[in-house]
Structure formats: structure tokens, C-alpha cells
Amino acid sequence: MKILRFQRLTAKLALAALLPALLPASSHQDAPLIILDPAANTTDVYAFVKGSGSSKRLTVALSVYPHEEPGVGPNKYNFDDEVLYEIHVALGDDVKAGKPTLSYQFQFTTGFRNRNTILQSYLGVVNHVADNAQNLVQTYTVTKVDHRKGGKDTLLGNGVVPPNNQGNATPFYNQGNNGENPAKDGVATFNALDTYTKEAIIDLAGGYTSFAGQRDDGFYGDIQSIFDLLKLRNPGKDSQGGFNVHMMALEIPLTELGGDRQVAGVYATTSRRMVRIARDNGDQNSGKWVQVARQGNPLFNEGLVAIVDKDIYSRSSPSKDAALFAKYALNPELAKLINLLVFGGSGPAVETNRTDIAGIYIPDLIKVDLSTPAARLAGSGAGHPTNPDDSGFSRLSIFGGDVLQSQIQDPFGNGGKIPGGWPNGRRFGDDVVDIAVSALISDLRGPVVIRVADGIDGVSKNDIGYNKTFPYEGTPQNGRNHSHP
Questions:
Q1: CA dist., res. 383 & res. 329, Å (int)
Q2: Of 31, 149, 341, 422, whose CB neighbour count within 10 A is largest?
Q3: Where does residue 193 rank: exposed (0-12), middle (13-18), buried (19+ CB within 10 A)?
């Protein structure tokens, strides 16, 4: 009888384990294998248009290192010299094919000013990036690979990674330039950025601009409650609150992409060498690069792809998505669970032949209409005195009335008005949890039916304001003074 009771309890728990799938979220734990490799674990990818006229640019960014605790020691979180970080851009026919046209590679090198000390990171107060007090210094290269020219690569330039926000060792990240205080809020202009961030923004050849370093984790959502048997709370708690990530960001002139009368596709990958060879002078890696993770749109692998295929997704290319993963977008289990568990079995979500959802995710590239005006950006909130959200910005994108005017397409039959944020690109501040659920319970095919799932997880903003100037992601949390919900 005890065994039978245990089996029944196990069955109930197994059923309950399905409930969290009701609400997908970028918890940064997308697939079983990659969570064992945080330096290569992609958390979020961003892509949006900024500027106008000849200065129009596509801004792209990739974050890694989920749930990075601020202020650790004696070692600290860094980019991995043995990981190839790549942001890919597809153009023309390559968008539909899921193939990169251009790839932008970030590769890092780590050095120490003094190895005869336990003070790995800071020998004193860091006044400027890479000064004598910053013991561990990472530099990086940015290389453009043009797949139209047989993979021809062009070195765009080099950069330096600023220090992590430790606290007293890095005071200029923090309010009042005091390491005892919390991190500074978001700002609206370049001149208002903290010293370290400004010094780490690098102009590269060809009109590119880059940044690589620690930032606040700009994703927000109550992941803990979603994955705790769907016991949602209101207000919810931001499960990424108080954590940092490591981010690479790049501004790409649209002249490099062939102009703005097109839709581009963006995704990112991380790779490691196939073979490691041990030598007397230390480990050295050899062999070709092998992809270990990828990410395009938020939530796809985590929220729609079944466990059996999650690791396969990490190792595959978007060119394989139509064959391997389209079934998960066309017939999303998530829609069925929403109807069953939220609406008692007769909900509004269309469960089969979701060509609208497949249009977002297959192939899994963030599609960005380059013909629109600049994206509206989140700042530190609509009413903030010095860094308000842009007028008309909505974290719900099109579901909150935030739309942009396309010059090249009219997918909704409304005169070319398309989403102001994800799934047309993705901005810092887009509430991808609420947007994704809204898309699933709506029908984005003609005639369009819109239903809005506003505040479904009880979290509607990030814990730190975003910058409205490059690199956009918020100031890294202070290791000495931060909190987790």
C-alpha cells in the first residue's frame, strides 16, 4: 500500500511538473547540458534599430553567465578565453533559410599585472579601466566573417573589458561614486554614463561600436513561482533581480548590411574547441570549433521545445529548424496547457496549425525590420525625472499599442504598422513573458484577434533602469550593496 501511495504521489507530481510549462520564461536554463557551462550559456539576445538617415544602425547584444552573483572573490566571473562568442546576422534569402550572412566574433584574452598575490581582481581602487589597480585585465577582438565571400574574416578592432562591480574597489559604478551605495540607475545620455562604461565603449573600423563587460541582468519575471507548481503571486518577485550577466554589444551601421529596405535576422551561438590537448606548459585547446549553445528569440527552446530535443537545438543551426523544430511552433503544447489549466479546457488559444507562431520562431532568428524609425526605448520608468521611457514605449510591444511604421511590409493588413518591440527585434525592457502568452492566446493571422495577458506573472519592470544610450543594459549590481527578491 505504501508503494502504491508513493506511485500515485509520483504521478501527481509528474502531472504538476507540467504546470510550469504554462508560462514560458527566460530563466536562462534552456537545456540540460548547457547549464553546466555558464560561461558559454546564452541568456538573452537583443536586436533593434537606432538612429536615422546615414547614422541608422542595428544594435545587437548577447548576454552569458546566468544568475551571476555580484561581488564574489577571490576569483570572479569573466568571459572565457576558450569560448568563441558569435552574433550572426542573416540578410536577404538567408533569413528564410536560417543561414548567417555575416558573423561577428568576440574572442577574449586574459592577463594579470601581478600573479604573486591572492588579489586576483583588484589591487586597489580602480579609477580607470585597465589601470594599475585592475589586476585581471581582459582584452578582446571583434572579427567580421562574411559568408558570402567564403568566410572571409576582417578584424574590426580591439577592446578592453571594464572591471566587475565589486563595491569599494569600483566606486564609480555606484550612486554618489561611493562603493557602499547601490549601483547607479539608468541614464539618458552618453555623458551621464559611469566612468568605467564610457571608457569601455570602443569605436571600431567601418563605423562599428562595441562594448563587452558586466551588466545588470535586464530580463525580469517571477520564474521561481512559475516553476513552483504555478503558484503565482501578485505582486511577483523578479527572479533575476540583483544578479548580473556578462554582455557583448555591437552597433552595426546599416550601410554594412546593404541599407534599411529589408528584414534582417539575428541569433547568437557559443562554441568550444573539439579537442583539448594537455601540454607541459598548461592546457591548450585544439581542433575545430564546435557549437555548444545558441539563442534567437526568447523562450523558444525553453518554453516550446520538448526535453528530448533541447540539447539538439543547442547544437544545431537555424537552417535545420523547419525540419527539426517546426512542430513545436505549429502545434504548441503550451497553447493546449493554457486552455486546459487556465480556461478549464475551452480556452481561446488555437492549439494546432499555428502558422503565426511558426512565423515568429521558424527559423529561430529575431527578425528585425530595418526600414522603420528608431525603436522606442525603456529608461527608468515612464515618470522618471531624468531618464524616462521614450514616449509611446510599451513593455508589451504591439500588445500595448507600441507600433512602428514599416516601409516594406504590411503583415497585419493595417497599413504597415508592426510591433515596436519583440517579436519585431527585441529591446531591453520588452516583457517577453507577457508578450509570449499574449501571442499564444491571440491569433495573429487575418483577421487579427488580439488578447492581452498583461502582468500575468506579477512582474512588470526590471529592478534597475536601462540606459537609453549604448550599451543600453543597466549598470552592474554592486557586489557590496544589492538584494535579491
A1: 38
A2: 422
A3: buried
Preceding peptide of 447 cis, ω within 30° = yes
Q: Are 402 and 394 in contact (CB under 8 A)?
A: yes
Burial of 391 by CB count in 10 Å (0-12 exposed, 13-18 middle, 19+ buried)?
exposed
Please tell me the distance from the alpha carbon of residue 325 to that of residue 130, in angstroms, as a whole number.
Answer: 45
List Cβ neighbours of 248 (8 Å cut-off, separation of 6 or more). 61, 62, 63, 85, 87, 106, 210, 211, 212
**78, 246 Cβ separation under 8 angstroms:** yes
- The CA distance from 70 to 77, in Å, is 9
- The one-character DSSP state at 398 is G
- How many CA atoms, within 13 angstroms, populate the side-chain half-sphere of residue 350? 18
Place of cell 564610457: 198
How far is residue 478's CA from residue 1's CA, in Å, rounded to a whole number?
54
Three-state secondary structure call for residue 262: coil
CB 459 within 8 A of CB 237: yes
Cα–Cα nearest to 466, from 358, 384, 357, 356: 384
In the chain, where the domains are located:
18-441
- The DSSP element (H or E) to which 94 belongs, if any, is helix 93-97
What is the dihedral sign for C-alpha 218, 402, 230, 28? negative
CA distance 56 to 251: 10
- Grid cell, residue 42, equals 546564452
Q: What is the pLDDT along the chain (485 residues), one digit of tens a residue?
A: 333 343 333 333 333 333 333 344 455 766 778 888 999 999 999 999 999 999 999 999 999 999 999 999 988 999 999 999 999 999 999 999 999 999 999 999 999 999 999 999 999 999 999 999 999 999 999 999 999 999 999 999 999 999 999 999 999 999 999 999 999 999 999 999 999 999 999 999 999 999 999 999 999 998 888 777 667 788 999 999 999 999 999 999 999 999 999 999 999 999 999 887 777 766 666 789 999 999 999 989 988 999 999 999 999 999 999 999 999 999 999 899 888 877 888 889 999 999 999 999 999 999 999 999 999 999 999 999 999 999 999 999 999 999 999 999 999 999 999 999 999 999 999 999 999 999 999 999 988 999 999 998 899 999 999 999 999 999 999 999 999 98
